[in-house]
Amino acid sequence: MKKTPVAGHYLRGAAFMLAVLASSCASKKHAANQTLTLKTTGPGGATATATVGGPKKEGIKKFSEVITDKTKADSGLFNTYKVDGKYYYEIPDSLLNREMLVVTRYVKTPTGLRTFGQQYGGEQLNQQVWKWEKHDKQVFIRVPSYSIRADSTSDMYESVKNSNLDAVLASFDIKAFNKDTTGVLIDVTDFFNGDIAAIGLSDDVKKAYKVMGVDNSRSYIDTIKSFPINTEARTLKTYRSGESPTDNSNGAVTFELNTSMLLLPKVPMKARLMDARVGFFGQQQTDFGTGKQKSDVTAYIHRWKLEPKDPAAYAKGELVEPKKQIVYYIDPATPKKWVPYLIAGVNDWNKAFEAAGFKNAIVAKEAPTAKQDPEFSTEDARYSVIRYFASDVENAYGPHVSDPRTGEILESHVGWYHNVMTLLHDWYFIQTAAVNPAVHKAQFSDEQMGELIRFVSSHEIGHTLGLPHNFGSSYAYPVDSLRSKTFTDKHGTAPSIMDYARFNYIAQPGDGVTHLYPQIGEYDLWSVKWGYSWFPGNKTPDQEKEILGDWTTKRAGNPLYYFGRQGTSIDPRLQNEDLGDNAMKANTYGIANLKRILPNLEKWSYEKGEDYSEVEELYNEVLGQYYRYAGHVITNVGGMNENFKTYDQKGAVYDFVSKDLQHDAVAFLNKQVFTTPLWLINKQELSKFDNGVMINRVKGMQVSILTNLFSQSRLARMYDNEAKNGANAYTVSQLFNDVRGSIFVGAKPDAYSRNLQRGYIDNLKSLLTDDFRGYPGFPAQLLASIGLTPINMSLSDIRPMVRVELKKIDAGLPKGGDALTAAHYADLHLRIKETLNPTRPIVNLPAGGRGINTPDIKDVTGAGYMNCWPKTNVDNY
Fold first, then answer.
1. I want to staple 280 with a disulfide (CB 3.0 to 4.6 A). Which of 89, 301, 348, 860 is the partner?
2. Residue ranges per structural domain of the chain
3. Inter-axis angle of helices 583-597 and 613-634, to 10 degrees?
4. Is the Cα torsion angle 514, 518, 519, 525 positive or negative in sign?
5. Residues 138-188 pLDDT 10s
6. In terms of pLDDT, which residue wins out, 42 or 89?
7. What is the pTM of this model?
């Protein structure tokens, strides 16, 4: 839940397909052998090659000469055969040129695997679409691209085809035709045994462990099974490795992998066009067949195919069951006591589907045992599964696999890490312990933890239904409403469980609030209605778009139905971990509760015979929550409200946060951050684990917040606001005056204040010397859309203002004081003088030359942009 895709004008609905390009050629390995080299482009542009040797080419044989009586056969999508250690596919002519979705997952991984992204059994490695194509005496795997398109009825269709040639992944000699010559037989042994990026390790894993290719002597095909609409190939691959995660003496790393090939529908599901005002994951294409006088980017949402069993009853407004229910299976490896809560988290979505006219649309079940269904596999592409990982990672995520032609979701494997419970425990404690005596203990009851698991289960399942994070949802509820028992019992903490609206840190002792976590809410019902409502009459996507657009416009302006994208730091409403419609008010309550919790950490986490590591962990969580509160407030300064609209809606899409709110935000920071938060220094609790680093930690937080407040991009937006709105804008000059008056107050600053004053001057120095670097290659408006508003520092008004600010500070510094205070002020004078008039070192030239003054050059990247670029590949809790 911590990390997921950006949507907006430039990133709206983006789902980037990595097409695997391949070429094949022959090379001489042995004079008597013909070899095939497969070269594939994997994630990140890295290539992998596999050279597979075979006997000298022979003519096409009779089917019975290859598939003998000793053959082990399996019938299904492709009939598969195993003969003397070789595996064959019998491909019927009816399935040639049909599109098939291919997904490769880990089955088992070695201990100690630590790489970005996937690393546990059940997690996805690759996804691709294949088409099997016959040409003369060979069969090719083609990899179609869906980035550009035109309808077959469009006069642009042929032109698009000519510019969108499908790449060839691999080729196979035809070994035989089947008995009635309506199918071909090929040998796939070397293909599945090879080192092929499309069905093997990701580039990240190969780089991390210095993989040098497959060791065939330690690898094999375990099974290839065929089912009515899919085949499943399970392999064990041992890769030669220079850096094994377990034991380098092996010189290798071993994985079990499963590659599912699932037949896509012959008639694709009708796509539903995206609308930036309603949040859905999706994919986009450049469409040349729309009839417009330019190519058009069309985007489709990701959703399951739901159609009513009884269309007539559905049309009357009755709740109707779908023709095909959405089913999730719980991993058999899941601890039994958590299974009912995971199931409940899935089933909770039925009330949202009722808003779309469906009953019993979704269900979770325990996976069948081997006795109940010997063919069931959690890696099988036909099944959606919540996989349980024995991992110390504090996370969970909800991906889905979709048809790239239409956005139809076909299956999902939710990733559930065991230690997500640690995260839930700490957050629930830190955010609610002031009003929730039930958490005043080291270990939560199974029922308490189960309900928290249910909440996370619902959130992750929401992602698998196509719903992204809605970071704007929690803004809909007034802060004071979250102090009402009546309100929170009915609504929880936000209108959407897809927000990062965790637990109610606003409620105060005596309010009587007991319902402290999110639930599926008003926005969730609306988004499912928008995405999954079925329309009779075989309407086109454009016709449906018109109806859905009217629905959306009627709800515009109602905060309950507002969608706020993830991945931008412009809009203060679109933040993770926040609650309520006013961060300053909400976080004042939050800090009041932290002040109540901090002195009781030892008492409320007591566990006989244990050391104080739990106290230290919870103390760190308090610091983190405090820092989070400050971050919520900062975003108001230089902030802009973002409200996507269509031509038929009035008002601005972007407008600046009001002057009063920006002033209130700085006032909050002056009071809660830049005035030393001495309450964070609890000597009794710190004596149990702190070995002398607390002053530096507080300084680090204060300076980091200060750096964020004075980031170049934030100041750029403030100048833009002043230029457009004049006296109605909160200006950079006012920001300097307000902050200076708080940081430089009193004639004898304490250690924390001295650190902060030096940090402020260092920040001003960076504004004079550091240029905005941005991200080369990214358009300015794209950077601005995520909060990295570009600015030319050398030509801006910032540097003149900074020089004036430094002179004001220098002129106002007190004189005298005790030895430490006097030394501090003398140091500040020198820092300011050096910043305004930097010394330039003399560079001695070789004999015959003369000394010249050269500026001190250093590599800088700007300030205040830590962790600003969002992750886009998978959702995390």
1. 301
2. 22-263, 302-573
3. 160
4. positive
5. 999 999 887 655 565 555 545 555 555 688 999 999 999 988 888 999 999
6. 89
7. 0.83
